What we know:
By secondary structure, the protein is an alpha+beta fold. The chain has helices at 11-22, 26-36, 43-49, 54-66, 85-101, and strands spanning 41-42, 70-75, 78-83.
Amino acid sequence: MAYPKNKTYDIDIEELARFAKAMGHPARISILRYLASMDSCFFGDICQELPIAKATVSQHLTELKNAGLIRGEIEPPKVRYCIDRENWEKANEAFRQFFSNIQPNDVCCNPEN
């Protein structure tokens, strides 16, 4: 089935995909889990928690920040990070709706049927 080239996705679907992509790496999940357990923390604190290079941590923080799941505030000479509570709630609701609204077909891919 061919889809029209000018078809766009609903904003809700695009937002869910952005959150899912940002959460699609174990290091990012670890960062989110760590930040969720704190009020806020500095870049160096996060680096000490993960078994990866500082440059890689920085890249993961950038992805999470671009998705809106975290915020970074410059407090010279450091950057303090925290969970963006508003977008955290949006992501929570988006995933909840996605999983509650989609019911897999019981017979799909079932070798007995």
